[in-house]
Amino acid sequence: MSLAPMIILGIIPFIIWLFIANKMEFTISLTYVISTWIMIIWAMGDLANVYNTIKQVPRNAKVFNYGLHSYWINENSDLCK
């Protein structure tokens, strides 16, 4: 879910641009590709959150979000039963 903005607003439009770049005027093409890269760069914070979640949360744990904070609970603990 965190990577959706980067994929939808950055990567997919960039891949589309690869196929239609030679059919577009240069200034429009340049503006299009710069805007896709800006969207990808702005999503690096979300990418860092996904990386930290993968590195810090143990296997078989559930991740919960509360506002801006994320918590995890191990499924083997007594709190999940």
Briefly summarize what is shown:
The chain has about 80 residues and is α+β, with helices and mostly antiparallel strands. The chain has helices spanning about 5-20, 25-40, 45-55, and strands spanning about 60-65, 70-75.
Account of the protein in words:
The structure is a single chain. It is elongated, with a radius of gyration of 19 Å. Helix 1 runs antiparallel to helix 2. It is built from three helices and two strands; from the N terminus they run H-H-H-E-E. The protein is an alpha+beta fold.
Number of helices: 3
**How do the helices and strands follow one another from N- to C-terminus?**
HHHEE
> Numbering strands along the chain, what is their spatial order in the largest sheet?
1-2
The unreliable regions are none
Rg, rounded, reads: 19 Å
The class by helix and strand makeup works out as alpha+beta
Q: Which structural traits does this protein have?
A:
3 helices; alpha+beta; 81 residues; two-stranded antiparallel ribbon
